[in-house]
Structures are given as structure tokens and as C-alpha cells.
Amino acid sequence: MKERILLAYSGGSGSTAALVNMSEPAVAVVVDLGQQPGLEGLRARAMALGARRVHVVDGRDEFLDRFALPAIQIGCVADLTCAADPALHHPFIARVLADVAAMEDASVIAHGAEAGSVSAARLESLIRDCGFAGRVLAAAPRLGRSGAPERPTHVTIDGWAHTAEGSGPQPASSDRTAYQLTRDPAVVPGTATVALSFAGGRPTAVNGVSLSLGELVEVITTIAGDHGVGRVASSAKADNSWTIVEAPAAVVLTAAFAGLCEAGAGARGIAARAALGPVFREILREGGWYSPAAAAVQAFVRTLAASVSGTAYLDLQHGECRVERVEADRAAPVSVERQAEH
To answer: Using 50, 70 and 90 to split pLDDT, how confident is the model at 41?
Structure first.
């Protein structure tokens, strides 16, 4: 009996090579996080490359709500490399793959991460934690150092984050092809003041206008990006490569939450949050989102977030984000510090 194979298809070189090299036509799964190129293009490309059929799962709102928001609340996405790290969306992708595999009665889940890589190990661990008992296959060919892209490659996740990688000279700070979510901080005139309102740790409004989380992230990305907030670039001399990461909303939302947290959570809650942020990031990297350790940290985050209500006023200027003042809701729930005393 032939195995039924499910393949996570992103349209990248790894998953494309995996789909082409399958011994049998695979069922492709595209998880929509707002990435580029568009979904219809990915669906058509997968079918043209021999997919048996293609499932497209809309994950934009759930990713922001269940994965990005807790990472904001614990503070680990203040580091932009964490905000754009695949480790943040792998838990959701793994759950979708496990669910579709059960529906399709698939015995193999394949993906485009390089065999033996950290990403491959993390995906397998997460897929197992989601209840899949079959084989997990890193189906992309192994790349050596020469596999580093000579031309820039870009990944955008629904205005939340953008990464670009390439080799050769690092793009200029004003290059809008390389920097897609932010403008050059050196040439942005003036200052923007943004009022971000929270209720129970959840952002609810920008400048007094109530928005869904997805809409709010888009608005903050536009405003902060226009003032050069939320970008970092790095280069590696060893292989002449460079990386650009942009995540304006992660920077602004984290700063606003932290400002309100200081007003409502108490000293112990603030100290615990600072200590647990790096721990949570390591849990993410290791593929432990569904582990007991992650559950314990997230339980703390939910308790902490319940005390964070009010409005934070932030100044955005020349790539910097600064909390000007906060107006905490004094009717907010009991703080983490007071809960610890009972």
C-alpha cells in the first residue's frame, strides 16, 4: 500500500524541491499567514509541480492572537530576530499539518526545512506534540555553504515581519526593495505620537479607534514603519552574507505593554516577566511550545496580562520608540504581586 504524503508548501526553494522530488504526488498544505507571493499563485504553482491537491488554511488572525500576542506580552519579540524567527509560527504550522494529516489519513508529513537543521528538528518535535504518529520527513536537499542566496530572498508575514537575506554588499538604508516595512530613520521628518489602548493585556485601539488585532497590527506597522521604527541589519564576513529584519508592530506593542505593565503588575510581576522572556524564547527555539514548561510560562503571562489595562502614549522618531506616559486603568484586575500574597 502506498504511503499518503502531506507536504507543507511555502513556495520557497526547499519545499518546491521537495514537491518536485516526491516519489508519489503529495497533498500540499499552504498555511496563509499573509506571506508573499499571494495564495492563488502558491496554489497554482503547487498544482503545476504535481501536487495531488492543495489545502489552503487561513491562519492570519489565529497566528497573531494565539502566538504573536503571548510573545509580545512576555517581551521576547522586543528582539526583532525573535519576532521574525520561524520558531514563532512553526507551532501553528505544525498543528495545522497534524490536523490535515488526520483528515487525509496521511502517514507521512514532509516539509522543506533542510535535513539535520534546527528548523527540521523543531518542526518534528512540534508535529509529534500535536499527536501525529507517522513519519516526519525533511524532504529538501541538504545545502552547503554555496547554497547561500546570491540574490536577495524575502519573506513577509502579513505586515507583522519581513526578512531579507542575500550575499554581497549590504543594501543601503534607503533601499525600499530591501526594507519593505520601514523607511530610512535618518530621513524621516518629525515625530509621531501614538496612543495604544489595552484591555486585559490585549491591544484594542489606536488613537481612540477600536480595531481588531489584525487591523491594529497593520496600522501600527504603517505608522511605526514610516518613522523607521523596527528594523535591524546584520552581516557575516565569513560568507559575505547579510540579513535584514523588520517588525515595527512588535517593537511598539511590546513597549506599550511594558509601560502599562509597570503601572499595573507590581514589582514582582515585572521582575518575573523580565526573567521569563529569555526562557520563553529558548522554549520557542527548541520547539517546546506545547510542553509543560511553555504552558507554565503562558499561564503566568495570562495572569500578568489581566492587570494590564489603559492607554500608553508613545513617541516615534528617527527609528526610536519611547513611552512618553501611560494612563493605567485603576479599575484593572488584581495585580500579579497581590495575587502572590494570597
So the answer is: confident
- Rounded Cα distance, 257 and 311, in Å: 9
DSSP for 239-287? TTEEEEEE-HHHHHHHHHHHHHHHHHSHHHHHHHHHHHHHHHHHHHHTT
C-alpha 107/C-alpha 86 separation (Å) is 25
Q: Which of 23-37, 41-55, 130-144, 221-235 has the highest mean pLDDT?
A: 221-235
Rg (CA), the chain: 21
Q: What is the pLDDT of residues 297-318, one digit of tens each?
A: 999 999 999 989 999 999 999 9
| Dist CA 67 CA 73 (whole Å) | 10
pTM of the full structure: 0.87
C-alpha–C-alpha distance, residues 177 and 187, integer Å:
17
153 CB-near residues (< 8 Å, 6+ apart): 12, 164, 165, 166
The count of other CB atoms within 10 Å of the CB of residue 102 is: 13
| Residue 335's pLDDT band (cuts 50, 70, 90) | very low
The length of the chain in residues reads 342
**Which sign does the torsion angle of CA 163, 71, 283, 124 carry?**
negative
Position 155, amino acid: V
What is the chain's mean pLDDT, rounded? 87
| Full set of structural domains in the chain with CATH | 5-142 (3.40.50.620), 173-340 (3.90.1260.10)
Phi-psi region of 105 (alpha: psi -120 to 50; beta: other; left: phi over 0): left
Decide: helix, strand or coil at residue 181: coil
C-alpha cell at 312: 500608553
Surface-to-core class of residue 283, CB atoms within 10 Å of its CB (0-12 exposed, 13-18 middle, 19+ buried): buried
Distance CA 102, CA 96 (A): 10
